[in-house]
Amino acid sequence: MATVTLENLKKSFGKTEIIHGVDIDIADGEFIVIVGPSGCGKSTLLRMVAGLETVSAGEVLIGGRPVNGVEPMDRDIAMVFQNYALYPHMSVFDNMAYGLKIGRVPKAEIRTRVEAAAEILQLGPYLQRKPRELSGGQRQRVAMGRAIVRKPAVFLFDEPLSNLDAKLRVQMRLEIKALQRKLGVTSLYVTHDQVEAMTLADRMIVMNEGTADQIGAPLEVYGNPATTFVAGFIGSPPMNFLDAAALENAPAGVSLGVRPESVRLVGTSEGRLEGTVAYAEPLGAETLIHLRTADGQALTIRQDGVLPVPAEGDRLGAVWDPSQEFRFGPDGRRLRQDR
Amino acid sequence: MEKRVTFKGLWLPILLVLPQIVITAVFFFYPAGKAVWQSLFIPDPFGLSMQYVGLGNFEFLLSDPYYRASFVTTAVFSTLVTAVSMGVALYLAVLADRLIKGSGTYRTLLIWPYAVAPAVAGVLWLFMFNTRVGVVTWYLGQLGYDWNHVLNPREAMGLVVVASAWGRISYNFLFFLAGLQAIPRSVIEAAAIDGARFWTRFRTIVFPLLSPTTFFLLVVNIVYAFFETFGVIHTITSGGPQQATTILVYKVYSDGFIGQDLGSSAAQSVILLVLVSILTVIQFRYLERRVHY
Amino acid sequence: MADRGGMVQSRGLGIWLTHLGLIVGILFIFFPIWLAFVASTVSQQDIVRPPMPLLPGDKLVENYGRALSAGINAPVARMLFNSAVMAVGIAVGKIAISIISAFAIVYFRFPGRQIFFWLIFLTLMLPVEVRIVPTYEVAASFGMLNSYSGLIFPLIASATATFLFRQFFMTVPDELAEAARVDGARPMRFFFDILLPMSRTNIAALFVILFIYGWNQYLWPLLITTDPSMNTIVMGIKQMFPSGDDTADWPVIMATSILAMLPPVAVVVGMQTFFIRGLVDSEK
């Protein structure tokens, strides 16, 4: 078990800097999710912690020890890869045992550890099979098992669920969470899926083009986004952004954000703005209504599924509690004075 | 294309490539370079010194009627070998492709000649057509035809062509069969539904779709006929009669090792080298563009 | 018998014509081999008084025994051994030096790597026949005439196999090497534990191709071996023909020809799947 600290961590390929300095202190046993769209640098960040990418500037500390020059194998980490990276010619048992064999762990000990991991992951019956004889979910478990048996101080996950189908993804997500709680191992988990990030993380790092836009607990990030990027990326459907100047006395370029679930539909005269229903999407439990204003702005409203669904072309007003709105400056940063 | 992962280390990779570097440098690049170098010199009659002649060897070669004749011989020989072996192979592959069951058995039988060395193939055919004891010669004699490839240049050429093509059928057959089996069934069925009969289907659908394989084999077979048929020529005719079967590679050998004319032989090597390079470039550039995929 | 899609349906007569066509083709292809086999089982008298018989005689043991133990210039058993050493030496040697250098150029960055890579491309194009005279001089200057190393080394001096292994290594996912690194494997350990076992089929396919290539060499052994006891079987056959007007010892020559084709045929037929795969890969 260990803490992980990133100090102003930067990465450049040639002259292009792709990670512009990330700072975080990760507590022992904490589950950190790094989330962002593809190309934001989240995998590179993780690979620097793993020691698979060199660090251009700044420092990685694991358990208080600077590890920039330390080989991956000596960092006391284990990693689960997106495509699992199982050795195709080795049995499940050998896949899990390989790292221990290299580390010259005694045979009996290897057997105990692998079998214990197989027990936890329900892989007992498959130990002698080759990876190609397993289903996607089972392969995923073997990759996890390979990480567990090494009893590392830190788990690193690089989009481990992205190759699974939607249903299995939800199930494995719960299993990973339970396993991490049980083992109490500090974890860094990379994903582009904001739902995965919300459900797994103790704290999350929202990455945007090589910058950590916000670091915080999921609900804090959701309820109090620091930038338009974070506000738009976390939450589905995303936050509505309106031109603040059209609604109130505000300088040009300021946008006003409000989440779809904060908005209620009312009669035209009662709304803070009014518009026409472009289309409505009844999803059963809820209905998404897309409103378009006269000046061309779009607004999505999420309402309970039991409420009546307005017809396309209806003119309606929209209101929300002022405490639920967020203002962002032209640079995308939150304007703090409004709260 | 680059790997993302790299291991660290400087001496280890150098150590790993070293055996190949040394062997290739000593037995490939140095001799190839020396061939180019030697092609610019002629040795004196006693082999004691070399005289620089610039492109003299090349000028001499290109005006030498024997060398020009060898060029024509090579062109005729490789065209015939390529046509015969590819024709027979395509015919057999089309037949084998019609079968679901049994095509494996035929394939196993048909790959045999690939394993037979060209020189051994030469001996087998020489035996059949031997002027004194050959079985085929004897039966031809019964029919009133007096076969004698030792004296008759045309018959000599015919024999080395057949012996060379024979050994190549397996190779072409395997590629044609693979090519045919890669054509989607639905395309041919669609043509059949459109009312195209066997020959029409073959001409308008199958053969065009097979053209990548065909063009690939064309180049590969020409290269084969240029170089690897040395054994056939050497065992059957030794280039004769009257140099009628002296292809370019054979001439490099006979001028260099029998005639001891190193400058000329080296110049011929360089010309061959250029020819192979041209063929390779054609294979990569020109043909690929025109071929249906 | 069922019919494959190549030409949609052909029933009844069509099927039999198909088989007939193939059988005629196979007879044409096998006739020279059959005739050689027959000649290797009859006496010299049967052959020199044409037409020779078309069915095997009773001298099989005698002719093969004579060829293997005495031959004409050297015992054929000795030549078979020489061929085996040469073919296996070329196959194993070329695979060994190629796989390690492919490993180096794919998994490392080192100075000169690009140059090395382009040199590989150059060697893909030039057969040994093109540089035959200078190569002979090099081998002679190293005292490699009439030696196994002289038979083997000049023929492994090309990078075709390196190129093939490189192509294969490029398809191995990056994560595999990363996982091995995280597991604590150093480069050579990764090579032996992961990469080599994963390359098994490629190695087998290449072995078949290179074995045939080595076994069937003609010009090079012809130049480099003057001592009959160092002759390979494929080039030794030609040496068995007498010069001048003497009659060749056909039964022994034909027995030798059959012996010369048996090992490569066994390899090709026995390892057919690897062979076909190797052919297709090596020409891509």
Question: Can you walk through the features of this model?
Answer:
The complex is a heterotrimer of chains A (339), B (293) and C (284). Chain A is an alpha+beta fold and 339 residues long. Helix content of chain A is 26%, strand content 31%. Chain A is built from nine helices and 18 strands. Chain A is elongated and about 80 Å long. Chain B has 293 residues and is an all-alpha fold. Chain B has a domain of 197 residues: MetI-like fold. Chain B has 15 helices and two strands. A two-stranded antiparallel sheet of chain B has the order 1-2. Chain B is globular. The model of chain B has no long low-confidence stretch (mean pLDDT 84). Chain C has two domains: 57 residues; 207 residues, Orthogonal Bundle (MetI-like fold), CATH 1.10.3720. In chain C, α4 crosses α8 and α4 crosses α11. The N terminus of chain C is likely disordered. Chains in contact: A-C, B-C.
Label this structure with key terms.
heterotrimer; B: 293 residues; mainly alpha; MetI-like fold; 15 helices; 73% helix; globular; C: mainly alpha; 2 domains; disordered N terminus
CATH class of the largest domain in chain C: Mainly Alpha
Instruction: Tell me the number of helical segments of chain B per DSSP (H or I, 4 or more residues long).
Output: 15
| Rg of chain B, alpha carbons | 24 Å
Largest sheet strand order of chain B: 1-2
CATH class bucket of one domain in chain B: Mainly Alpha
Which structural class best describes the helix and strand composition of chain C? mainly alpha
Gap between N and C termini of chain B = 23 Å
What profile does the largest beta sheet of chain B have?
2 strands, antiparallel
Indicate the percent of residues in helices of chain B: over 70%
Report the β-strand fraction of chain B as a percent range.
Answer: under 5%
Q: By CATH's scheme, which homologous superfamily of one domain in chain B applies?
A: MetI-like
Oligomer: heterotrimer
Secondary-structure content class of chain B: mainly alpha
CATH architecture of one domain in chain B: Orthogonal Bundle
**Approximate strand percentage of chain C:** under 5%
CATH topology of one domain in chain B: MetI-like fold
User: What name does the CATH topology of the largest domain in chain C carry?
Assistant: MetI-like fold
Give unreliable regions of chain B as ranges: none
